[in-house]
Structure prediction request, 58 residues.
Amino acid sequence: MSDKELRDFSQKIKQGLELAERKMIEEKALYGESIIVSSDGETFQSIPAKQLVDTANP
Prediction:
């Protein structure tokens, strides 16, 4: 696999993961659920999914 093919493949995977994450958050918001997030892997916080959807779509 050439460098360009590898970059293209990596980009497609990244786009797919971002789409899947967005759909998951939107579905959780629809059902009034929360998302558990962590920035350091040690401290966790529960955030309503609707808050994340509202932030992403002002």
